[in-house]
Structure formats: structure tokens, C-alpha cells
Amino acid sequence: MSVQENEVLVKITSAGTISIPKQFRKFMDVQKGEYVKMILGKDRLIVRKVTIS
Fold it and tell me: Considering the entire predicted model, what is its pTM?
């Protein structure tokens, strides 16, 4: 299995959480502990930064 430069394998913990890799957090300007919205498309998963107030 090959992984392209913009792809990373992410393991889901037994608690159901994921850890977004550092390079993606930097790109999205997201810190650990912040929330993201995940949208499941037909053949893709979209991750968007959200602000909860």
C-alpha cells in the first residue's frame, strides 16, 4: 500500500477518537483539543474547522 504526500493513515482509538496529524493541524490552524466537523461524502471525508461559542 502506498501513501501519497498529502495522505496519512490515522488510527481510531477504542474510545472512538482520532488524532489529526501535526502537519494537517498546522494547515487547518487547529490546536489539540479544538473541534472539527467531519462530513461523510459519497467517496470522501471532509474535515472542517469549527468554532463553538
Answer: 0.60
